[in-house]
Amino acid sequence: MTKPTKAERAAREATATAADAASRAKKTARTLSKKLAGELDDYIEEAREAADVSKKKLRAKPKKVAARAERAARRLERAVAKTVAKAERKSRLRAEARRAAEDAARAEAEAAARAAEAKALKKAARQAERAAARAEQESAAADEELAVALTAPAEPEVEVVETPASKTPAPKTTAPKTPARRTSKQTPKQAPKAAAEPVETLTVAQLRQRARAAGHTGYSRLTKAQLIDLLS
Questions:
Q1: Cβ-count burial 36-52 (b if 16+ within 10 Å, e if not)
Q2: What is the pTM of this model?
Q3: Which of 67, 141, 181, 196 would you label with 85, given CA atoms 20 to 30 Å apart?
Q4: According to the model, what pLDDT value does residue 192 have?
Q5: What is the dihedral of CA 87, 93, 99, 102, to 10 degrees?
């Protein structure tokens, strides 16, 4: 049996490398998308054809067989590296797009929550303003009622008298005293007038009553000093 030459051994190694590259590329293609895997088909087929040579051709042209196999293996390896990098880039971009979509959805949800919270706060503020206005009106009305109650004339006292017959208490009103008749010498013009009580000695309720009688408005919110200035 003829011993293989150095060129033949190199050709066999090159064809084996090409076949191994084609096998590994085929496995890698299964992990890629259909479109990317299709980009490797021509390179895989070229490497297989370079590795599948007859012994006769290998002995006849070993250098040419080795060069073809080496070239096919290198082309296939570069194509696989390029395709894998493209697949990784696409995967990274898809992941980034997915994260961006998630961030956008989260930001939108947070914005909607803040908008709902702001709307609720505005509603609560409007309700508080209405409640404050209503309370102020009720306070003013209470001040008016208190002023009227303090300045209203006292009711006549009722005295209970027991009769000898029935011993039943009967209400007895104290009749107001009849003013003395004017003498012929005293005329209405000559009657002394009652001195007006100084406003400084009046209470706040009395000052408000006097302001009301004088036709003033907005006096229910004034202080005692302001009421005195108003009536002076």
A1: bbebbeebbebbbebbe
A2: 0.48
A3: 67
A4: 45
A5: -100
